[in-house]
Amino acid sequence: MLISIYSTWSSFPKKQFNMTQLSNNGYNLIKKLEGLRLSAYRDVAGIWTIGYGSTRYHDGRTVKPGDKLADEIQADAILRNTMKPYEDAVNRQVKVPINQNQFDALLSFTYNVGTGALEESTLLIKLNENNYAEAAAHFLAWDKITDPSTGKKVVCETLVDRRQQERQLFMTPVNNKPH
Q1: Which has the least CB within 10 A, 20, 61, 120, 159?
Q2: Domains in the chain, number
């Protein structure tokens, strides 16, 4: 009987280290880095965006030319209502303990580059190898956009600044919690 119970128990998925959500500090960082625009615009990579860097609405519709938001409250609601897939991706992909600042930095990064980019990144590989310092260094590699007019990768100063801020937050301890 004990063996069958143990076998059943051991087949359950292992508890994940990180089942958390973006903190208010994390939301404020994203809002600061993205800036607020109440009318749809093309971002530096040519993607239609609105509010605080949102490319989609909570119902999945994509932002299109001519879209307008009523106010900052609506922009904030869109940001908060579209964050879950990014939170889920970080929670699913990170296999080592991280603190809230590290989670917030990873969420800002993932919100900006997308969940697929996180999954394929050396940053995530190094982090999951328990190499927090190398993971932090790899934020800085993500400073390029594809120029919409040439199709070539070019350094974007806005991303250079963003990655430095994300890296700094990632390296900031919270009450002596994990790395």
Answers
A1: 61
A2: 1
Nearest to 71 by CA among 39, 47, 49: 39
Q: Residues 26, 103: contact at Cβ < 8 Å?
A: yes
For position 109, which CATH number holds?
A: 1.10.530.40
Q: Of the ranges 44-48, 96-100, 115-119, 163-167, which one carries the lowest mean pLDDT score?
A: 44-48
- Convert the pLDDT of each residue in 107-123 to its tens digit: 999 999 999 999 999 99
Across the strands, what pairs with 62?
56
What residues contact residue 145 under an 8 Å CB cut-off, 6+ apart?
Answer: 44, 45, 153, 154, 156, 159
Is 34 annotated as catalytic? Answer: yes
- Alpha-carbon distance of 125 to 111, in angstroms, equals 18
pTM for this structure?
0.84
Q: Determine the 3-state secondary structure of 142 from DSSP.
A: coil
Residue 176 in domain = no
CA distance 84 to 20: 11
Q: What own/partner pairs with CB < 8 Å and gap ≥ 24 does 124-127 have?
A: 124/93, 124/94, 127/94, 127/96, 127/98
Q: Quote the CA–CA distance of 52 and 48 in Å, as a whole number.
A: 12
* pLDDT, tens only, 112-171: 999 999 999 999 999 999 999 999 999 999 999 988 889 999 999 999 999 999 999 999
